[in-house]
Amino acid sequence: MDRYRKSSLMAYFLRELFKLKSAYVWVALLTIIKGAVSLLPPMLLMKIIDEIIPAKNLQVLLVCIALYFSSVFADSLISYLLNMSYTNIGKKLFLSYQDQCINHLYRLSGEYYTNKDSGDLLTIFEGDISNIKEVASTTIFSFITDIFVAIFMLVYLIFLQRDLFFCLIIIFPIIAITQIKFKDAVMKQSVVAREVSCESSKALQDVVQNVMLHIMAGASKFIKSKYIVAASNNVDMGNKMLMMYSLNEVVLGILSSLLTILVLGVGGFKVFSGALTIGGLMAFNVYTQKLIGPVMRISNVNVQLQSFFVSLDNIYKFLEVEEAVHNNENLLTEHIKSGEIQIKGLSFGYGPNTVLKNVSAEFRPHTINAIVGESGMGKSTITYLLYRLWEYDGKIEIDGVDIRMYDINYLRNKIGIVSQNTYILDDTILNNLVLQNKELEFEKVEKVCKMVCIHDYIMSLPQKYNTVLGENGVKLSGGQKQRLALARILLKDMPILILDEATSALDPLTEQKVYDNIQNFFRTKTVIIITHRLSTIKNADVIYVLRNQQIKEKGTHDTLIQKKGYYYQLYNRINNSQI
Fold first, then answer.
1. Which of 59, 228, 298, 517 has fewest C-beta within 10 Å?
2. For the whole model, what pTM was predicted?
């Protein structure tokens, strides 16, 4: 990673820290106090041993003991307050980064959603953000504290015993060299470890989310073996990293012991010769041991910072992913009333594959419109473009305004889409329907559920509307999920309603009953129905027939049948195959 990239990342990171400036001021103050307080106990110990005990001054001894205890207590109390502050800062920073990443994820294009690596996303959202949180909430101030303590102690140790200070000069360069080697080894392995962790997360997510599909597909054994391999590699890599850290601790322990031996050996000879007091030797040894910790952590900060920059780079790269649909400033957040849609010269393709070419259509308010055609003709693509999941050529207007001029969140809140792929929360039926909209009256919920023919089933359950449905509605059939999703959109009461194979899992009789029940509701909206069951759209005001990237026919059911064109062929083919 070059210096310019690191500078950009640090600038981005500092902008986040600035949002928490008041918390950091408080932590900085506590850090300075802690650094000063931690130096007092060895000084008091030396004074007690060398001056107070030989003088047999009990009163002063008790005062010094009280001061010693007070300094230790104050140090512990400040450490507790710092940990509380670190936790608070870490939480705010973690939530801030996750909020940015999730908001950005929802603004990305349909192309990104279809090609995203969920394992890598999970690693960014959890592992990388946690790493940033740790550095920002603990490492930075620990580093500042350690620098402050180390400088103070070094100056004091030189003043206390210059000869013994040379013991530090001998050992500390060796410590620095070992840590540089350790840093290089850790950095090389960290990149590999992250990739292995992503693969393991991806495999585990597949197991957890799709367990029933695996069972029904007879793929359980294969999926399990695939996960075991990924998990085993991840554990092996974790063990390898752990052994590297353990080896480093062993080396540091040996060097620390060697430093103690040198200090006690050289210092012992100086005590014998009268050049050093016992209290001075004890204080010097305590300071030396206190200095080792900060020096070790300071040398390790570089390792942590390298990992920090890798994590920050991963987050920043994700946030740099260009939003294919740009949401410019000064956009409309109101205007849509009737929901009239006009499509003019619409062209779109997935990469080099053209799906729609110069398509024009009009969907008027209070009408039921249908889009039909064979699979792959671009029927669902039109709804995706209305939802602005992709950019396109041509123009789409709602109530006379190009949809690019609407705020994207406002636009999407005016268009209700029910597809054959339903999403059900692991929550109660009622919460699935109202989605925290406390203004919805329960009577209205019941009314809509009766319209979509699911109320009787709900009332047959022991907990009725308070029944918890399980992950992705595992307790419901496909048809029940679709009816629940349809009821949820109807309760939102949006001016534009799109049903994209929304009742494909229902039997024909139930489907027809549902459509009969909601006809009056449809007449208050702009409705677009996409379906392969042409019998359900006989009463549509306008039917658009897509073929070969273009609209080939348009009209009512009866008109299109009389033309005996493509729609006529499609209708007869479907009826003959009983689809």
1. 59
2. 0.68
